[in-house]
From TrEMBL:
Keyword Lyase: yes
Gene: leuD
GO-annotated cellular components: 3-isopropylmalate dehydratase complex
Enzyme Commission (EC) number: 4.2.1.33
Pathway(s) it belongs to: Amino-acid biosynthesis; L-leucine biosynthesis; L-leucine from 3-methyl-2-oxobutanoate: step 2/4
Name of the protein in its database record: 3-isopropylmalate dehydratase small subunit
Source organism of this protein record: Bellilinea caldifistulae
GO MF: 3-isopropylmalate dehydratase activity
Annotated keywords: Amino-acid biosynthesis, Branched-chain amino acid biosynthesis, Leucine biosynthesis, Lyase
Length: 196
């Protein structure tokens, strides 16, 4: 995983509440255990027309969001089934952080294990972000993980919570196993001193 520290990016605004994992990545794309290529199926039922051509009205198909790494979503993002493919599809498209007022627990855990930062902000901050980016979708937003803050285009900031272990893993670009492997020398020293 790529380490996450401070990210400044354009923003994809998806002002839809209760987006579930089947909307993020429809079940028909879950036949793989490989992450590669899933970004092409992100929000497939909204992103493509019945004939398979891109839906010009869907936000991911808009020129101004190409290269964006932050998704500003409606309330209750990532509910539904526990498919890890949802996090894989978002990161496969290039999303590094999702901002919402609430993020479903299982999705949040899957996101953290795959280098995707779930950012929960209070409703008033969320409403302000939605307003800012609806008026000017070309602005950028900064997420500072060490400081645990979202820095708005006007320079003001809003804090967000994250547990210390997940923060450490994201900052170092590792999952739980990678974290443990980083302690291999200490584990070996401990094992060598153990009395049986």
């Amino acid at each position: 995983m790529q380490p996450f520290s401070r990210l400044t990016s354009k923003v994809v605004v998806l002002p839809v509440s209760n987006v579930d994992t089947d909307q993020i990545i429809p079940a028909r794309f879950l036949k793989t255990t490989d992450k590669s290529g899933l970004g092409a199926s992100l929000f497939a039922d909204w992103r493509y027309l019945p004939d398979g051509s891109p839906n010009p009205d869907f936000v991911l198909n808009q020129p101004h969001v190409q290269g964006a790494q932050i998704l500003l979503a409606g309330d209750n993002f990532g509910s539904g089934s526990s498919r890890e493919h949802a996090a894989w599809a978002l990161t496969g498209w290039g999303i590094r952080a999702v901002i919402s007022t609430t993020i479903a627990d299982i999705f949040r855990n899957n996101a953290l294990k795959n280098g995707l930062l779930p950012v929960v902000v209070p409703p008033e901050v969320h409403a302000r972000l939605m307003d800012i980016f609806s008026r000017d979708p070309h602005l950028t937003l900064t997420i500072d993980l060490p400081e645990q803050s979202v820095i708005l285009p006007d320079g003001t900031s809003a804090p967000f919570p994250i547990d210390p272990f997940s923060k450490t893993c994201l900052l170092n670009g590792v999952d739980e196993l990678g974290y443990l492997l980083g302690l291999e020398a200490e584990i070996a020293r401990y094992e060598a001193q153990r009395q049986f």
